[in-house]
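hey m, so remember when u said the tokens were messed up on ur end? i reran from scratch. heres the input so u can diff it against urs
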Amino acid sequence: MNPSPPPAPTTAPRNDWRALAGTRPFAFWAFLALLYLQLALSLMPTWSDGTYYDYGWLALFVVPFFFLTRWRETGPSGAELEERLRRLAISLPIMGLVVGCLLLITLLRMTQWADSSWRPPLVFHGLIVLGLTAVLLFRIQGRSIAAYWGCTIVVLLVIPLPMGFESSLIHWLTKGVMEFALFVNRMLGLPLASQGETIFANGIPLQVSDGCSGIRSFQSGIFAGFVLGEFLRLPLLSRLVLLASGFGLAFLMNGCRVIYLVRHAVAHPDADLEKVHDMSGYVSLTTTFLLIAGVGWLLARLEERMKDRGVDQANPA
């Protein structure tokens, strides 16, 4: 007589989302969703003003995707999650921390309702949300929360920079773009003069202000490079190369944009430079994104070849 087959295991695998169902897990997910929804609502006026942070809308989809992907890989099983959440619920220090953070967020939201463009409350709001999330995840997962560092960086990238730092960055980028455009145009035989942030081409003044500084391309390029590196799961060195490429490509493309605007103004002195200015900006930004995607693809292919070579060396024929 054949022995009866062993009973099927009752414990669901870690990556089975049905194992995470329950009252406490649902409350935990709802709390995190509301916590980050409040942060997103406070940042939406900045994303909507059409200046430098409109890429922040992508974070509404990118952050949950990255978080859930990492959770499936490192998060506890359903029974473990239920037990650890029960311990959190009866921990007075943790509950006190949660209540205190919620009170601070409420005060910051009241400040933001009065002036949604004031940067410090937005920064503090983001840091409080990230800090509270880190504490809760550490109590649930321990040191494996290091896997979520990519989500943290994405959130930080969509929070507006302090005004003083942003102004200094714009000034530095404007100066760099001006010097690059002057150098290239002079090398091409076009005599130019400059005064402050204005380029004079055959007597035609061209103002190189914050709109031409490349700050939008710079910040969008950094965001795109980091998100692409996290999506492709590149190692740290490749991610740093991708970020550096994003910065360099954004600067180069915006410098080429200013060079083109100068030469177009000289060749067509009666043209509407405002339309050319806007169109060249879109072309520059799109080209920057495409080049960053190309660099990311090349780094991913290189990483795959290095892994395959390592496997071949470890298992010689």
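this time it looks ok to me. The first helix runs from residue 23 to 48. if urs says something different then somethings off w ur setup not the seq
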